[in-house]
Amino acid sequence: MIPTRLSDIVEEGNREEELYFTSDRLWSGDSGDGYETGIIISLEHRNTELPYNIWIKSKENGFGVAETIAKVNGTDIDTEPGKVSPENNWYLLGSHKFSKTVMNTHNIAITTPFPVEDLYLTNTDSPPPSNAEKFERSLYGFPRESLGASSLSPDRAEILSENLFELVYEVGKQGISKKGGIIVGIPWGTFPAPYWEGLEKDENYQMIREGGPWGGPEPDSFFFATTMKSDLELDLLQFWKYSFATREYLVRISPTENLQNKDIIRVKFGREEDKVRLGQCFPYHYDENEKIRWYSPTVPMRVLVDPNGQGVFVPLSKDNSHEFEVISGREKRAINSTSSFGSKPRLKSAVYTDTARNPKRSTGSPREFSIDFEKSKGYDSEKYSAILPFIDSEGSYSGGFANPVLTGKPDSEFDIYWGEIHGHSGIDDGMRSLEEYFKHAKDFASLDFTAMSPHSEYVNDQRWEKILERVNDLNEPGNFVTLNGFEWTSPEGHKNIYTTSDKLPLFRYTDQDIEGRGFDKFWNQLEEKIDQKVIVIPHHTLDGHDWKNRSPEIERLIEIYSMWGSSEYKDNPLWDKTQEGPSVREILDRGARLGFTAGSDTHHASPGLSPDPEGTKSRYGNLKYKNGIFATLSKNLTGDSIFKSLKNRRTFATTGERGILLLRANGKWMGSSIQGNELELEIFCAGTDKIKKIEIVKDREATQSFKPKDYFFEKTFNLEDRNGNYLYTRAIQENGEIIWSSPIFPH
């Protein structure tokens, strides 16, 4: 996207706006009935008081606007033919008044008889410029290439490492007047807050240090800027007014004298006694200097320039901006996974990671590891037989226990399959590609099934069809199952939708073609657009969720744990944020019949085995815990079988390790509704560590507990008081890991 008349950090106001999108920012394709073009735009901090004229440019002359269909957030706009000039092929589609949306995004979808080359929006009556280069020159009076260039040293650093950074900015041909200056953007979490002498008296700085974007306290490091030709004045821009819009600490550097072409500004971040500690625990290559949307992962210490004091800070062009790479640490750990069922345990894979669990490499059937059956822990009873394999290493890695394996199945009909279905990537507001997401799930996390759940508000319809095609191509029944899904977001909370079907219509809270507010709108949209089998799963309800179980046949599960923490009950030790919504137990108390899943909500494409964020503050500051994972009891590894288990709530969830917790009542599996006056409970647990405590939770309270202090636990007994809405079990291991069974429902 070519930058707008005012930069992405200027506050809202009643002003003229121009937005120009070139073809590389648009999603398009031939649908057979015409060319479909779409884009998700962000109007955060834009003037939305006036309607915007929407123009499109085609390579084809003789373009027919009358044959064009244009929609904004699902609503048709009236087309008004208005060709600018034959040689430029610009056409006015019509005008639209954008309203505020929960995600500050809008979905523009256009169907045309010919391909669309560029898109131009303006709230003025001015016609578009002939091309992007002329637009840029008319907007600023100069091309971005004349603004200079930046470099950063070092330009790569290891996760969680300490460094001294130097940013070198060379002034471009445009120069910088003493009324102008530059802004340096320092991303939250990845880098600490900047500090210089005297700043401790600044109320804005005090707020950042004490509270910060994620509740603080925030670390800081010394920040210093010099140039040979002038004194420099530093100003930390107001956090809530500017920084919150870009998710960066923004430092304005202003010269007291004019700077000329080739002059150098040096910015040093950190001192020997006060080095900059990277807060990022996962690898990523940053190469984008332009904040297209609030979540765009721009390069740390990016430079924006106002050469003539107009108050318009323009990002350097991508070719003239530095890049930065966060790399994983040295190989330190090996994580082995074994099959969860089978007459004899077998090693599935070994994943070699750094200290933060970032995968370095993966091997199937690893030769340097073997199962030592003498050191393994075994269990055998009339109903259950299991083994906790001890893994020996022939190399430099120490041995240890893997995950438990059921060697004798308690029910010959079902096997255990592990999955993680709540995660994000660069498809929406995350990082890294779709291919990296699914490769991680299969090759590193050794999942049996997975799904990606992009925020629908950040995906347009044209791109969604391509996503479905790619996910469907990765589905391998019997080996690795992929589901299709997305996340729907409103001010009242979040819900994820999943299906085994190859198709899944996409809808958003921001769409205006169907009426309703909050979750009423969600259910109206689902009933109108969905005609295939789907499962709906809400998540992190403690963060805020207006619970309405309008369709209990579809909403069958709830995510009890993720990298947000646990929503099991209020004031629990695995939740460190405000509690504005109901807990899982409170929702069950209202009569909802929901099984349990756990996931990650990863935003860097690492489902099932996330980097360990403990003690770090990344750009996704709410994600402070390790990923969760869950298992189904299913007949086989196919989409239909997994989906049936989800619908029947035949699941158990964990805080990340693959311990097993099974619950039956009167012979029926967890997730079932139980009839009759008697209630015979059957509990079996196999941990990855010794089991510290197993609790029976009935109607919000832990009514009974056992302390096995062993790797296995089995008990069958009659429950004296069977009254209540729900009952589930939770196992707490000595290493702090937790396993939850899905509830049974006595009435």
Automatic annotation (TrEMBL):
Coiled coil location: none
Segments traversing the membrane: none
SUPFAM superfamilies the record matches: PHP domain-like (SSF89550)
Chain intervals for the UniProt region annotation (Disordered): 598-617
InterPro entries: DUF3604, Pol/histidinol_Pase-like
Protein name: DUF3604 domain-containing protein
